[in-house]
Amino acid sequence: MTTKPRAKKFRIRRSASVAxxxxxxxxxxxxxxxxxxxxxxxxxxxxxxxxxxxxDGGAPMSGMVSSPRETRMETDIDAIRQEGLTGRQLRLxxxxxxxxxxxxxxxxxxxxMLRERGIDPFKRANMLELVVPQxxxxxxxxxxxxxxxxxxxxxxxxxxxxxxxELSPAERRAREIQDIQRDIARRRRRKLSLLAARLAFFVxxxxxxxxxxxxxxxxxxxxxxxxxxVLKADSAAGGVGGLLSGTQFATSQDSIAVxxxxxxxxxxxxxxxxxxxxxxxxxxxxxxxxxxxxxPTNEEAYATYNxxxxxxxDPTEGVVRMEVSAADPEVAAEFSRKLISYAQExxxxxxxxxRADQMSEAEQALLDAEAQRRAAQExxxxxxxQGAVLDPEGVVASLRTQISxxxxxxxxxxxxxxxxxxxxxxxxxxxxxxxxxIRRLEAVISSLNNRMVDASAGENSLANLRIQIQMAQAxxxxxxxxxxxxxxxxxxxxxxANRQVRYLTTAVEPVASDEPSYPRxxxxxVLAFLIFSGIYLMCSLTASILREQVSS
Length: 552
Fold this sequence. Notes:
The protein is mostly helical. The chain has helices at residues 16-21, 30-37, 41-44, 68-82, 87-99, 107-116, 124-129, 169-217, 239-244, 252-262, 265-274, 277-280, 298-308, 329-350, 352-386, 392-421, 428-456, 462-499, 521-551, and strands spanning 222-232, 309-314, 319-326, 502-508. Strand 2 and strand 3 (319-326) form a beta hairpin.
């Protein structure tokens, strides 16, 4: 490893004769040289005169060599120049040197002299001390202190005291941060401008158009409100049905059916036929959005009907609320009254078919029971006429009674005959009479038995006739019970049908309004603003997500 040789720097000072010879051509530069030669004057005083030998035939040049201190001073100044101090820092160092009465001829020398004194010229406390005024007043006629510099002073022309163009790292970093902040602010302003432009185009302009329509173009609409209830007749039924009867739950299905009917196309067509719904909304003075074209289709008219007729059912109260809007208040009230009449007819027809079916079935069952009872009666009469006996069972009972009576008499005669024959010499006449009585009684009993046998044998016997008559009587009794049941069923069905009757009661009658109800200008404008804002927000989020997905 080799070390480069370092040569010491020497400064050769010229003698006085040489300086005098060169004084004439260097006259213009004297002011600048004078300022530069001031610090070197004390060092050159004890050295004496020197001889110059450049032009004397090669004689050696005589002079003084710069001391190591002077060489170190120039080296320090060069090092300070390389630090890249700003003009503001150099001015502060010059003012600090003047404050401490340091004879600095340049800004860099002021920095060097302050540092030799152990003073940091760029310390904040030292810089703040420059602001404090110092009392440097001197008596009149007193010469200025040696080494003090009276401002303003001239700067030597041979030196350039311009600030360095090179920046320190801290200043460079501060400048870069400022540039970044300016760029961020510029981008933010540009983005805010673009956002404001998009909001104005996609949100504010449509909102202004909607507000202009609602405030200036839209035709005022008058509404007519009404309320009605669908009630059910009082019912005495028990169980769950009895608990729910008379409440809104008992007629909820009917109310919903009425609501559906009034919102149907059938009701719209009927209203158009009777009152002229289409003709009212095709008038020329209506605004283009609410006006129907001439000869509109049923679908277009039905869309306008749904927009202007609003019906709601409240299940907690059982009330059907209806609001009808039209360009004329009287027309709106007329539309509402017509729709209520349609609803009343619909309610009456809801249970009519069911009630008619139930009553028809009960009446038919009653007619059948009556016919069957009549047939049973006719059969019984025919059976009674065939035997010529109204009561065959009574005839048989009578024969049995007679036979029993004659048999008792026969036993008595036989006992009497036995008593007569027990005598040793019985009376022949009495014996003959008893025997004759016995024979007669036996003949009668035999005749009665024959009649009994004849009545009990054969198809036309009293026994067979009696059984048929008993069956006919039992059938007749059954038909009587069935007839009574049919009569009771008819009455029950009639009561049930009466309980199933639905009534429509109008709680609030439709009245023509004096002021228009629609359009609601402010509310509709705010709603339009919210809708457009929501649409813009969704589109912006979608675009941002897609942009992020594509970039990733």
